[in-house]
Specification:
- It contains eleven helices and ten strands.
- By secondary structure, it is of the alpha/beta class.
- It has one domain (about 10-150, about 215-290): 3-Layer(aba) Sandwich (Rossmann fold), CATH 3.40.50.1820.
- Helix 2 crosses helix 11 (about 285-290).
- The longest helix is centred in the middle third of the chain and has 15 residues, at about 100-110.
- It is globular and about 55 Å long.
- It starts with 11 loop residues before the first helix and ends in a 5-residue tail after the last helix.
- The mean pLDDT is about 95.
Length: about 300
């Protein structure tokens, strides 16, 4: 397959058609914000108004993972690309350095929100969000975790990392699509194709690389991560866990029990027929749940 032209704003009608959504596509723009004078984080601003939500994607994803959710919500919101992901600059500490990511995202939010705003974090974005909420309650009015708790470990997430830690380069788009279909057999091919175009780059020789793998591997030691269960336990703001209940979820009953022990006021919501990627498997149900927090 030859060169593929990519326009990140040209796919919204596909999102609408796949989920039978009869809504208008609101204004959407890409923005960049400086986080340390040298590097920038990027994101998508849905509607030009103070955001009613801020959303952080999981590892190896990007802000477009929430497109269908944003279309269904029809609310002003921000979906950020984490450092080393999407259109954001690389982190000096690599793709999974959540303490460094939290510092960067907080610096961005100080410029993007004018009041405490609901923060939604999926997977690695959720772990990052815990640190942000604990350190900067003046920026965060509520915390929603999508299929993640501090109790998720390598064993629980091995089916995710098996896909993420695959080849770092693909000779052509068809190879990349085939591997993605293999690891996501229940998802529509059109959705997987669109997701790849948002999440991968075609190089000058025609090969493809994931955006989160385009940067050289960092040799720096990442900042220490505080005990995330302890940080969750410090929160007085509303906390919600949205757990996928189908195959692929990384959260188990022990995680729920520990969350309730640490945060007695936490709400736990089960989403049937959704695995780890609730925003991909059941975006309309996720939108309905998040709409309760948007303000």
């Amino acid at each position: 397959m030859g060169e593929i032209n990519y326009d990140e704003f040209s796919f919204f009608q596909e999102n609408l058609a796949e989920w039978d959504l009869d809504v208008e596509v609101p204004s959407v723009r890409r923005f960049f914000v400086s986080v340390d004078g040298l590097r920038q984080l990027s994101g998508l601003q849905w509607k030009d108004a103070d955001p009613s939500l801020v959303m952080l994607h999981g590892g190896a994803q990007n802000a477009h993972t929430f497109d269908t959710v944003a279309l269904a919500l029809q609310q002003p919101l921000i979906a950020l690309d984490l450092p080393n992901h999407g259109h954001s600059d690389a982190s000096p500490f690599g793709s999974s350095a959540i303490a460094a990511h939290a510092t960067d995202v907080a610096a961005a939010l100080e410029q993007l929100v004018t009041k405490p705003t609901p923060l939604v974090g999926m997977s690695m974005g959720g772990l990052t969000s815990i640190l942000i909420a604990a350190a900067h309650p003046e920026l965060v009015s509520s915390l929603t975790l999508i299929d993640i708790t501090p109790g998720v470990n390598a064993e629980k997430a091995k089916h995710i990392t098996a896909f993420v830690n695959g080849p770092t380069s693909f000779d052509d788009f068809d190879d990349l699509l085939a591997r993605t279909i293999e690891h996501n057999p229940t998802r529509k091919v059109s959705a997987l194709r669109r997701g790849i175009l948002h999440n991968a780059l075609q190089r000058s020789d025609g090969s493809w690389v994931w955006r989160h793998q385009q940067h050289p591997k960092s040799e720096l030691k990442a900042p220490e991560v505080a005990n995330l269960w302890d940080k969750l336990g410090e929160l007085t703001m509303p906390v919600t866990l949205i757990r996928g209940m189908a195959a692929g979820s990384v959260v188990d009953d022990d995680d729920e029990k520990e969350l309730k022990r640490r945060v007695p006021h936490a709400e736990i919501v089960h989403v049937l027929e959704a695995g780890h990627s609730v925003q991909g498997d059941q975006p309309l149900k996720l939108a309905a749940l998040l709409g309760r927090f948007a303000k």
